[in-house]
Amino acid sequence: MELKEAFGIALRQARLEKGLAQEALAPSQAYVSEVENGRKSPSIEKIDELASVLGIHPVTLFARSYLVDGGDLTDLLKRVTRELHELQ
Fold this sequence. Notes:
6 helices
């Protein structure tokens, strides 16, 4: 699965879990639908805005995207933690 498709799924899941309609995320419901269906890739600024409306960190949306295909959260967090320490 492409990352933009996985991101769309993660966005939709987060939105539904928060009990929000697509219209609550952005002025254009059509835009949110395009992102959620993997047809559009939001900019970094737009991802930050979407995450803010959802009340979560943008990295949470990305992490969730990598878990859509059944990835393991513990393994992902260990890898990211290790890589962040290596980059310091």
